[in-house]
Amino acid sequence: MATTDKPTLADIRTWPATVGVPDAAKAIGISKSHLHALIKRGESPVRTLSFGARHRVVTADLVRLLEAA
Fold first, then answer.
1. How many CA atoms lie within 13 A of 1 on its CB side?
2. Is-above-0.85 flag for pTM?
3. Coil, strand, or helix at residue 48?
4. Cα dihedral angle (3, 30, 25, 12), rounded to 10 degrees?
5. Is residue 3 part of a domain?
6. What is the pLDDT of residue 5?
7. What burial letters (b/e) apply to 31-54, b meaning 16+ CB within 10 Å?
8. H or E segment to which residue 49 belongs
9. How many domains does the chain have?
10. Which pLDDT tens digit goes with each residue over 20-66?
11. Whole domain around residue 37: which residue ranges?
C-alpha cells in the first residue's frame, strides 16, 4: 500500500477494511500530519477508528469520498 505514487481508486478498492493514516492521506492528497490534525479536531472527511493514540481509516469511507470528487 505505501508507495510513492498516489493510489488510484481501483487500487484503494483492493485495500483491507481499514488502512493507516499515511496511506489514507496519500489517497486523499493531503499530508499525514494534516489528516492527523483533522482527526484530532473531529473534522476528518472519512470515518476513523481510534485505538488509543493510533487511528485507522475506514476504506469504504475513503472510497465514497473519492467517488464523490
1. 18
2. yes
3. strand
4. -70
5. no
6. 84
7. eeeebeebbeeeebebebeeeeee
8. strand 48-51
9. 1
10. 999 999 999 999 999 999 999 999 999 999 999 899 999 999 999 99
11. 9-68
